[in-house]
Each structure stands twice: as structure tokens, then as C-alpha cells.
Amino acid sequence: MCFKNMRWLFSLLFTTVVILLSHKSGALNLSEAYKMALTKDPSLKVAQEEYLAGLEERQISYSALLPQISLQGAYQKQKTDSREVSLLTDETLERDNDQVIDGWRLSVQQAIYDTSQWYNYKRGKFQAFEARHQWQLQKQLLLLRLITNYIGVIQAQDNLELAKKLEESDKKQLSNVIMLTKKKNNKNSTKRRLTEVDIYQAQASYDASTAMRLNNEDIVGQSKDALMFIIGNYQTPLWRLADNFSTTQIMPSEPYQWVQIALANNPIIKAAQARKDAARAEYKSAKLARRPSVYLELQHQERNTEATLIENLSLSDLRSREIGSSISMNLSVPIYNGGLISSRRRQAEHQFKASEKFYSEIVANITRQIVSTYRSAVITINRINIIAEAVTSSKKALDVQEQAYQKNIGDINDVLRSRQTYYDTLRLWQNSRYDYIIKFITLKSLAGTLSSKDLDELNNELVKKS
Question: What architecture does CATH give domain 70-85+93-113+293-332?
Fold first, then answer.
């Protein structure tokens, strides 16, 4: 038994060490980051508490339609001392009265007819619907924020790598120009000045690339801070977008089809609809506030009394018990309450009209964003294909200019411009791929169909960088 326990402990220790080492040396992919965000993101935690609070609106408003049961109890102890003197006989009557009274009452009240409370219940039900749609919205926004910030980090890291490569190339170019200058021993002052200008231009290009690298390092730090706010602190590197990542045609292929999907699924639109329904119910409740309400009330009560009476040294004890039940039907009709009912009705009417306009505004805004995002995503796909060809062309142009300069038949300005064009084009191509991802994910979010499945599909396009 002892040997088995030792073997089990050793196995557990070995597994723990393996897990820790793999976590330390591993990389954080998008799916793992999502699991961390579900437990770490502060915005999601706030939204969850607001969602749970909003769900209670239905039960709060429904409770007014259910029987209202209350139990009351009372205990009273009273002592009375009195002294009476007769004016005719001059006799004195002394009386001491001690009483103990206890009792309880059970009351049950049920609304029979109350249209105002009924529409209040419908209002609470729609408010609970709104809370549910808001919760769905927050979960989709978490996916959108996570993907955007995760992509933002790896995009910034890719740009930083390009900036480092450009800086290193400019550094080598500067060293090469200095070396070529030392080899030249021309007596022509004009050629000497041209050579010095080459050094200055190479130095300026190197300084500019260094400044760009520093700027990209700052962007990487800011991007990591934004991601850490969502998933908490992380030390492992992130997965990167695969080099063979390719864009696909956006389906559905028409913007109006995306708009129709959004009208049926977008949680912002559905929450606005629920808010409008709640405002309508509140308005109907306010309009019907002058109608009579009928309540049925049942009561049962018991009362016990114990009294001790001392009258001129004569002692007597009294005890009594009262038991009673009653049933009543109560009718209540509001007549005048200082204009409160009319004011509430007008207020509810304006709030309902505002909710209608708010819903129309939301639908128009979502429609505009879908059309704009769809158009931009399609243009981005075409731009990626064109820029990919530009990357190839600019690389060939750079190779030609570098070879010409090495043969002393080219100009340093042509080399520097070609190198800058190549890296700018390469950076634009990389950023365009990330722009496509963000725009496509944003389009799905606007349509209300963004889910963890989309995150997993995007995660399959990432690779662990060696």
C-alpha cells in the first residue's frame, strides 16, 4: 500500500512539472485567451451582474398579481392605578388594574381586477427580455474586443519585426557606404562631396528607421496592455497569423442580406425592441390608472386578554379570548390626487414615443454600419491581392538598385527609396490582412451572429511561432 501511494505521488508530481514546463514554454492561442477572458474580463463581470439584476424585473412586477399574505402579531402589557373619592360619602375607592393583551392577525389580499398592475407586469417582462438581449450583446462584444486586441498585438509585433529588419538593413547600408567611401581615393572634390552626401543620406535613413522601430515598440506595449485588461496578466507569447492565410469571399454576397440577418439577430436591435415594448406597456398602464381596481381580502385574527383587578383589597382575575374571521371585496376608484395620474400618463407617452424613435435610430445606424463595413471588407480583399503583387515588384526593384549601387553605377537615393517602398508595401500588405479579419468579425458582430465558433475558426488560421 505504501509503495502504491509513493508511485501515485510521484506520478502526480511528474504530471504537474510537465504541465508547468509546457505552460512556461508554450504560446497563448486565441481560444485559450478566450477562456481566460471569460473569468478575467471586468466588463463581462459587470454585465453579468446587471443581467441577473434585470431578470428580477419580471418577478418583481409579477408579484403584484399574486396573493399578498401578511401576518401581524401584537403584545401589550398595561398597568393602571386609580383612586376615586366620593364627594357625598367621602369614601375612597382604590383600583389597580393589570392587563396583558396578545394576539395575531393573518391577512390575504388578492387582486381581482387591476389593469394597471397587469400592464406593469408586462412592462417587467419586457425589461427582463431587454436584460437578456443586453447580456447576449456583452458576450458578443467580449468576442469582438478580444479578437480585436489579440489581432492588435500580433499586428503590432509584425510591424515591429519589419521595423527592426528595415533598421538593420539601413544600418548595413550605412556601414557599406562608409566602407565604399574609404576605398575611394578620388581627387575630384565634387565626387568627394557626393560621397559625403551619400553618408549623410544613409545616416538619415538609419535614424528614421530607428525612430520608427521605437515607435512600434511603444505600440506593442500599448496593445499588450489593452489585451491584459481583458484576459489578465500573461507572460507567454501569442500565436501569429499564418503566412499562407488567404481571404475568402464574404457570404452572403449582398449587404441587404446582412441587414435582414441583423434585424432578426442583432442583440442591440432586439434590446431596443424590448425597450419599446416595455415603454408601450408602461404607457398603457398609465392610461388605465383611473380605472377601478377590485381586491378580495380574507382576514383571521385572535386576541387574548388577561387582567388582574384589585379593588379595595378585593382581587379578581379576568380572562377573555376573541376569535374572528372576515371576507371582504374592496373597490377602489381614484378621484383626485393632485394631477399625479395625468402627469404620469403624459410622461409615459413621451417615453414611449422616445423609445420608438430610439428603435428607428438603432436600426438605421446598424444598417449604415453594415453597408459601410461590408463595402470596406470587399475593398480590402481586392487591396490585399493588388498589394501582394506590389510587394513582389518592389522587392525586385530593391534588388536591382542594390546591385547597381554595389557596382558603383547606382545612386544611394534610389536604393533608400526602393528599400523604404518595399518595407512600406510589405507593411501595408500585412496590415491589410489584419484589417480584413477585423472588418469581417465586425460585420458578423453587427449581424448578431458572432460566436465562439468564429473565434475557433480564426484560431485555426494562427500558428505557434518558433
Answer: Single Sheet (2.20)
Which residue ranges does the chain devote to CATH 1.20.1600.10? 26-66+114-291+340-463
Report the alpha-carbon distance of residue 236 to residue 21 in Å, rounded: 12
Take residue 133 and report the three cell numbers written for it.
438581449
Q: Report the 10 Å Cβ neighbour count for 421.
A: 16
Distance CA 173, CA 33 (A): 41
> Residue 281's pLDDT band (boundaries 50, 70, 90)?
very high
| Total Cβ atoms within 10 A of residue 232 | 14
Compute φ and ψ for 100, nearest 5 degrees.
Answer: -125, 120
Q: How far apart are CA 453 and CA 250, in angstroms?
A: 17
> What CATH class is the domain 26-66+114-291+340-463?
mainly alpha
Contact present, 111 and 62 (Cβ < 8 Å): no
Q: Find, among 286, 290, 350, 279, the residue nearest to 124 by Cα.
A: 279
Weakest-pLDDT range from 16-20, 79-83, 364-368:
16-20
> Among 81-90, 193-202, 365-374, 453-462, where is mean pLDDT lowest?
81-90
> 75 forms bridges with which residues in the sheet?
102
Task: Identify the residue whose cell numbers are 525586385.
Answer: 396
- The segment(s) of the chain belonging to CATH 2.20.200 are 70-85+93-113+293-332
